[in-house]
C-alpha cells in the first residue's frame, strides 16, 4: 500500500519506524480529535467490535456448555436470566446492532459515496438512534418468543 | 495491516463483514430467544440442521472478521514486545473459537 521509501527519514510521533527504517503512517491517537458525531461513531465502532469479540467468545462458552456440560449450562442459563445477565445480553445486542449498522455504512463508504462531512454527521447520529431501536426490537421480539414458547 | 498482505486482508475483512450481516440478524433473534432457555429447548434449537449450519458459519466467519479487526487495533495502539504477544494471542483466540464451536455443533448434531 505504501511504497518503500528509504529517502524519507523517520519522523517520531508522525510515522513509526520499522526495522528497514522506512517510514510508515501511524494512525492518529484517540485524544487528538475534536469531538464530532463522526469521530464518536468511528471510536464506537472499534469499542463495539471489541465487545463483540468478547461476546462471541462468551457465546462460544454457552455453546460448549450446551454440548459438553449440562450442569455448567444450567448455571450459564440461570445467569443469563438474572437482572445482571439481562443487562449484559442487552449491551451485547446493542453492540452488535451498532457494529452491524455502522459496518453497513463502511461498506457504502467503500463505494466512494456518503463521505461528505455533513452527510457522515447525519448518518452517524442516525446510526446511534437506529442501533438503539434495532436492539430494543430484537430484545422485545426475542423475549416475547421465549415467553410464548 | 500486515506488510505485503494489506489488500487481501482488506478484502477478507469486507467479505466477512457482508456475510455477517444476515448471520448476525438471524443470530440476534435466535440467541436472545434461547440463551436463557432450559437445556432441552436450547439443545433442540441448536440441533436443528439449519440452525447448526448457521451457528457454525457464524463462528467461523465471525472469528476471521474479529481477528482482522483486533489485529488492526493492536497495530494502531500497541508497540514493542507486547505487540507480538497480543498478535499471537489474537490468532489463538480466533482459532480456539472456530475449533470449539465446530466441535460443539458437531457434538450437538451427531454425538449428543
Write up what this structure looks like.
The complex is a heterodimer of chains A (149) and B (112). Chain A is mainly alpha-helical and 149 residues long. Chain A folds into two domains: 1-32, no CATH class; 37-148, Fumarate reductase/succinate dehydrogenase, transmembrane subunit (3 helical TM bundles of succinate and fumarate reductases), CATH 1.20.1300.10. Chain A is built from four helices and two strands, in the order ββαααα. Chain A has a two-stranded antiparallel ribbon with strand order 1-2. In chain A, helix 1 (37-68) packs antiparallel against helix 2 (70-81) and helix 2 (70-81) crosses helix 3 (83-109). The longest helix of chain A is centred in the middle third of the chain and has 32 residues, at 37-68. Chain B has 112 residues and is mainly α. Chain B has one domain (6-111): 3 helical TM bundles of succinate and fumarate reductases. Helix content of chain B is 88%, strand content 0%. Chain B has helices at residues 6-34, 39-47, 49-77, 81-111. In chain B, helix 1 crosses helix 3 (49-77) and helix 3 (49-77) runs antiparallel to helix 4 (81-111). The model of chain B has no long low-confidence stretch (mean pLDDT 92). Chains A and B meet through helix 1, helix 2, helix 3 and helix 4 of A and helix 1, helix 2, helix 3 and helix 4 of B.
Ordered list of secondary-structure elements with their pairings:
The complex is a heterodimer of chains A (149) and B (112).
Chain A: E1 15-17, E2 23-25, H1 37-68, H2 70-81, H3 83-109, H4 117-148
Antiparallel strand pairs in A: 1-2
Chain B: H1 6-34, H2 39-47, H3 49-77, H4 81-111
